[in-house]
Amino acid sequence: MKRRMTAVLLIALLLAPLSKLIAAESPLKVVNVAVPAVSLLQSPLFVAIDAGAFRKHGMEVRYIVTGARTIQALVGGSVQFAQGVSSRTVPAAVLAGADAVLIANFSDKLLFTMHSTPEINSLQDLKGKVVGVSGIGGSTDFATRLALREAGLTPDKDVAIRGVGGVPETVAALKAKAVQAGTLSPPSSFVAQKAGFKLLFDMSSLGVDYVSSGLGVKKSYLAANRLEAKQFLMAMIEGAKILTTNEEFALRVLAKHTRISDREVLKNSYSYLRPYFLKVPYPSPRAIKDTLDVLAKDLPKAKDADPKDFIDNSLVRELESNRYIESVYGK
């Protein structure tokens, strides 16, 4: 009996390293994420990927740049998550009958700037001119319309708005003189500035709360894959923490994903956005409300919409109440 027990224990000890090896080599689940652009607003995702945060949860995360069609990629089911959706894109899709919801947001300000050719000195000078945006219906389009109305101009009447395909493409359109101004986010905004284009208007000065770095899913996906969504969000929170506390690592990640080697541009971009990233990434009902108020001018259904209809805060609330976020950031 003792010999048999000894043999069983010996076999168990011999197999233990093998079982660990098999577990370690288990294939990771591929998870696809849509992003509107490779910009700093999506950098918690890029940092989380390169830091191995998703792999801890058995995920191999791949992102697809979808421009202004990010919400369509999510709703269409070609991706499981959309990082960089906003308080403009999600409500507009839901009000049109789509299945989508915001589960987190890593920045709640309108962090876009409009840059122009040197002869443009004010927003009023854009009358009769063309402004480039990533795509019609996206966040840069929303920010542009808001800024123009603030200056007393009527979008599409006084000023033409042209979708050019993305934020880097907007810089290219400025260089090609296809547009006289363009709405940008870092790092492209600093690329444009360094190329001699004038900072015409900073949208953050409008004082509008805005979900500018939102994480979206389909409600049906969340119901069926709640644990996976929670683990994805955990990795994103870790990515945001590393992003805001480890500048050198963050700059290396940004250089890799943006393919921008100019350290000055990357450092300026990082310094500009770093204070705006949220530690506890709740999508703000106020940001949704501010956006709906503006959106109602073009989409009447938005006027009486309830901001809570576009938000599911339950995962962030759970990660806050069980002190996961505190464990990541420290007290």
Structure description:
- With 331 residues, the chain is α/β, with parallel strands linked by helices.
- It has 2 domains: 201 residues, Periplasmic binding protein-like II (D-Maltodextrin-Binding Protein, domain 2, 3-Layer(aba) Sandwich), CATH 3.40.190; 94 residues, D-Maltodextrin-Binding Protein, domain 2, CATH 3.40.190.10.
- Helices cover 44% and strands 15% of the residues.
- The chain contains 14 helices and 10 strands.
- The strands form 2 sheets. The protein has a 5-stranded mixed beta sheet, with helices on both faces.
- Strand 6, helix 5 and strand 7 form a beta-alpha-beta unit.
- The N and C termini lie far apart (54 Å).
- About 4% of the residues have low confidence.
Number of strand elements: 10
| Helix segment tally | 14
The CATH architecture assignment of the largest domain turns out to be 3-Layer(aba) Sandwich
Order of SSEs, N→C?
Answer: HEHEHEHEEEHEHEHEEHHHHHHH
The biggest sheet, with number of strands, parallel, antiparallel or mixed sense and barrel status, is: 5 strands, mixed
As for the number of domains, it is 2
- Name of the CATH superfamily of the largest domain: Periplasmic binding protein-like II
What is the beta-strand fraction? 5-15%
Write down the Rg.
22 Å
- Given helix and strand content, the structural type is alpha/beta
Average pLDDT score: 91
CATH fold-level label of the largest domain: D-Maltodextrin-Binding Protein, domain 2
| Physical arrangement of strands within the biggest beta sheet | 2-1-3-10-4
Quaternary structure state of the chains depicted: single chain
Distance between the termini: 54 Å
